[in-house]
């Protein structure tokens, strides 16, 4: 009986590994792509936000680089990343609410507002910390506007 325990454990481990691999393969690439973009937004916004809050020392080069990155990110055509059936009702790995697909013109307008706020940040980021702080309100507000309306809260 004791000799069977390692074999049973190995079998269960194999099932767990295979199941994990299958689950990983079935992950929606569109959801993965847009999640990656959101992480890049967050990384660059974190740099700017840290400077605006005084959590990190203002660095004009780093601020400009982060703002430039945000402008580029807002120019990526994300239309293929939002296929029908990739909301949180269909895929529990995303917090995207079905309302996105019900009101896509509003989502697009909010995306355009973010792009405009990113361009304003690009102009302000390298000037000084006060200019960065002033631009941060509109930029952060553009993110919040979309997330409040179209992203489910964390569990």
Automatic annotation (TrEMBL):
<keyword id="KW-0813">Transport</keyword>
<feature type="signal peptide">
    <location>
        <begin position="1"/>
        <end position="23"/>
    </location>
</feature>
<keyword id="KW-0349">Heme</keyword>
<dbReference type="GO" id="GO:0020037">
    <property type="term" value="F:heme binding"/>
</dbReference>
<feature type="binding site" description="axial binding residue">
    <location>
        <position position="147"/>
    </location>
    <ligand>
        <name>heme c</name>
    </ligand>
</feature>
<feature type="binding site" description="covalent">
    <location>
        <position position="146"/>
    </location>
    <ligand>
        <name>heme c</name>
    </ligand>
</feature>
<protein>
    <submittedName>
        <fullName>Cytochrome c</fullName>
    </submittedName>
</protein>
<dbReference type="GO" id="GO:0042597">
    <property type="term" value="C:periplasmic space"/>
</dbReference>
<keyword id="KW-0408">Iron</keyword>
<keyword id="KW-0249">Electron transport</keyword>
<feature type="binding site" description="covalent">
    <location>
        <position position="143"/>
    </location>
    <ligand>
        <name>heme c</name>
    </ligand>
</feature>
<dbReference type="InterPro" id="IPR015984">
    <property type="entry name" value="Cyt_c_prime_subgr"/>
</dbReference>
<keyword id="KW-0479">Metal-binding</keyword>
<dbReference type="GO" id="GO:0005506">
    <property type="term" value="F:iron ion binding"/>
</dbReference>
<keyword id="KW-0732">Signal</keyword>
<dbReference type="InterPro" id="IPR010980">
    <property type="entry name" value="Cyt_c/b562"/>
</dbReference>
<dbReference type="InterPro" id="IPR012127">
    <property type="entry name" value="Cyt_c_prime"/>
</dbReference>
<dbReference type="GO" id="GO:0022900">
    <property type="term" value="P:electron transport chain"/>
</dbReference>
<dbReference type="InterPro" id="IPR002321">
    <property type="entry name" value="Cyt_c_II"/>
</dbReference>
<dbReference type="Pfam" id="PF01322">
    <property type="entry name" value="Cytochrom_C_2"/>
</dbReference>
<dbReference type="GO" id="GO:0009055">
    <property type="term" value="F:electron transfer activity"/>
</dbReference>
């Amino acid at each position: 009986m004791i000799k069977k325990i390692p074999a049973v454990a190995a079998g269960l481990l194999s099932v767990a590994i295979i199941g994990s691999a299958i689950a990983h393969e079935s992950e929606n690439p569109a959801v993965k792509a847009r999640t990656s973009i959101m992480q890049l937004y967050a990384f660059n916004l974190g740099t700017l936000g840290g400077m605006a809050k005084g959590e990190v020392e203002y660095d004009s080069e780093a601020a400009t680089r982060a703002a430039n990155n945000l402008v580029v990110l807002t120019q990526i055509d994300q239309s293929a990343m939002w296929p029908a059936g990739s909301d949180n009702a269909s895929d529990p790995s995303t917090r995207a609410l079905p309302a996105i697909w019900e009101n896509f013109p509003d989502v697009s307008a909010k995306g355009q507002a973010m792009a405009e706020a990113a361009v304003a940040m690009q102009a302000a980021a390298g000037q000084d910390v006060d200019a960065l702080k002033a631009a941060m309100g509109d930029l952060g507000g553009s993110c919040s506007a979309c997330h409040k309306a179209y992203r489910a809260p964390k569990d």
